[in-house]
Amino acid sequence: MAAPQKVPMDIKGKTVLVTGSAGRVGKQIALFLAGKGADIVVHYLHSDAEAQRTAAEIRRKNVQAIAVRADLTQENDVAQLFAAARKSLGRVDVLVNSAAAYRKTAHPAAADLDFFYQTNVRSGYLCSLSFAKQAKKGAIVNIGDWAIGRPYKNYLPYLISKGAIPTMTRAFAKELAPGIRVNCILPGPVLLPKGISAAERREAVAGTLVGHIGRPLDIAQAVAFLIENEFVTGACIHVDGGRSLG
Question: Which residue, 239, 223, 137, is CA-closest to 181?
Fold first, then answer.
């Protein structure tokens, strides 16, 4: 007798926690998933007013949304974040580890590596552990960086921290199978840093194979794909316009 066909995970009606979703790419991921019918937990650390506006914008899509502050490097804060999500929305079905720090470090010190590891690695690690404690089935999507394969100068501690994301993804995929799938996106140039020069922008565009920078929507669509496709786990997908090959 043939095995039953796996039914794709339907985002509609699910509760998704998107860390770092008050603004930028995290916000667009949250809005896109809300447009597909998901209830959203908007996480933030400092941007209270922005997070509240994002939650209000999501609710206008006829889904539920709450904004919750948490320092994701602190175990108690992470536990309280998930407790608040369950209290308001009943459960968390999907975790998107989008929160991250990014800045130039021309003269790196040991403290810089500590900072980036705390923010970019420990936060996702703690959130994934908490998610796994309360979910027997679901999906985790991590956000890495295309440049871990082709590092550029003056971002040493940032890139080292982001280099840990694929390993964390594969390790959690192994640990949490078969109920929870864990995948990773490696974005290319999507939202360029503030203050970037025209020459740097041209260089970023020229480095892609498609001849233009990406949109936050491109990342959000990839997140949705990894949530919905039940046969993908432990994968790291480049969404970079070919930048990693340029």
Answer: 137
106 assigned to some structural domain: yes
> b vs e for 114-143, b when ≥16 Cβ sit within 10 Å of the residue's Cβ?
ebbbbbbbbbbbbbbebbbeebeebbbbbb
Q: What is the pTM of this model?
A: 0.94
**What type of residue sits at position 237?**
I
- What whole-number distance in Å separates Cα of residue 95 and Cα of residue 135? 10
Residue 146 lies in a domain: yes
| The residue to which tokens 């916000």 are assigned | 27
What single-letter amino acid sits at 83? A
Tokens standing for residue 156 = 């040493």
- Asked if residue 9 is part of any domain, the answer here is no
**Which structural domain, as residue segments, surrounds residue 234?**
15-241
Q: The CATH number of the domain where 146 resides is what?
A: 3.40.50.720
- Using DSSP's 3-state secondary structure scheme, residue 79 falls into helix
What size, in residues, is the chain?
246
At residue 63, what is the residue type? V
Structural domain contains residue 34: yes
pLDDT in tens, 170-198: 999 999 999 999 999 999 999 887 778 88
